Amino acid sequence: MKPSDHPLTVLVINGPNLNMLGKREPEIYGRDTLDDINADLAAFGAGMNITVDCFQSNYEGALVERIQQAMGQVHGIIINPAAYTHTSVAIRDALLLHTVPVIEVHLSNIYKREEFRHHSMVSGVATGQIAGLGIQGYRLALTAIRNMA
Ligand code: DQA
Fold it and tell me: What is the Cα–Cα distance from 136 to 114, expressed in whole angstroms?
């Protein structure tokens, strides 16, 4: 086993309305469902010796609690906070509990869309951000965490 192949656990968090992927504005978000994305990520992660733990909620407090519970338990976090990206100090503060890499992912390019989507509460505390590359953004984020761990 190469040193870069040591086992990792990565938490993947998706926020509100992302459970509706596939049905929700497919011209923006594509036709893959969240189950498709999570299954793809689990298989992709397995090939890099990464266990992927996926969580979705429509509730801000539930997202905060999952981020808190992950303290000391994971080697990285991938988060698409969805609409909470633009509003949630609570999610930002919860992410600050972590010293592991945090990658913010957006399916769409939030900077090309309505002005209220141009500001992210999370990007100032994230290690990096991937926006506008569709579902491959999650794979890229997982690869980045593998390369940083
Ligand atoms: C999103 C962009 C957000 O502005 C929006 O509220 C979402 C999805 C994206 O993945 O492109 O729900 O985070």
Answer: 23
- Catalytic: 59? no
Three-point CA angle 88, 92, 93, nearest 5° = 115
Q: Is the dihedral of CA 24, 27, 31, 36 positive or negative?
A: negative
Distance 63 CA to ligand 1 centre (A): 15
Instruction: Give pTM, 2 decimals.
Output: 0.96
- For residues 62 and 42, give the distance between their C-alpha atoms in angstroms, rounded to a whole number: 22
Whole-number Å distance, alpha carbon 74 to ligand 1 midpoint, is: 24
β-partners of residue 148 are none
Q: Are 12 and 40 in contact (CB under 8 A)?
A: no
Per the DSSP assignment, residues forming a β-bridge with 102 are: 77
Which tokens hold the place of 26?
């497919």
What are the tokens at 77? 């976090």
Mutate to test the pocket of ligand 1, among 28, 85, 109, 116 (most ligand atoms within 8 A of CB): 85
Secondary structure letter of residue 1 according to DSSP:
-
The pLDDT tens digits for 75-110 are 999 999 999 999 999 999 999 999 999 999 999 999
